[in-house]
Design goal:
Layout (H helix, E strand, L loop, with lengths): L4 H8 L14 H12 L6 E4 L10 E5 L8 E5 L11
Antiparallel strand pairs: 1-2, 2-3
């Protein structure tokens, strides 16, 4: 089995961002990288739904209204990048 180029690069990439998580790039950079992929895979909205509970853990929801099964997915973490997709 061949290891993909991306997987090989990720395995050797140093962790450069450690604020609340361990990443090779910042959350802002991650969002900038995936932004061009959102429309082609059917994601129409990304919403911050943190305020819907009393815990205060940042929760983000991605919406895919034309999907065949699961139309929303949620993710949580210790930080939220409010600048997310405004650019």
């Amino acid at each position: 089995m061949r290891t993909s180029t991306v997987a090989a690069a990720a395995a050797t990439a140093p962790k450069a961002y450690r604020t609340g998580t361990h990443r090779t790039v910042s959350p802002r950079e991650t969002l900038a990288r995936i932004r061009p992929l959102l429309a082609p895979i059917g994601i129409t909205r990304i919403a911050n739904v943190t305020g819907l509970d009393c815990l205060g853990i940042p929760v983000v929801m991605a919406v895919r209204p034309n999907s065949r099964s699961v139309a929303v997915s949620q993710g949580k973490g210790s930080i939220w990048t409010p600048q997310r997709l405004r650019r």
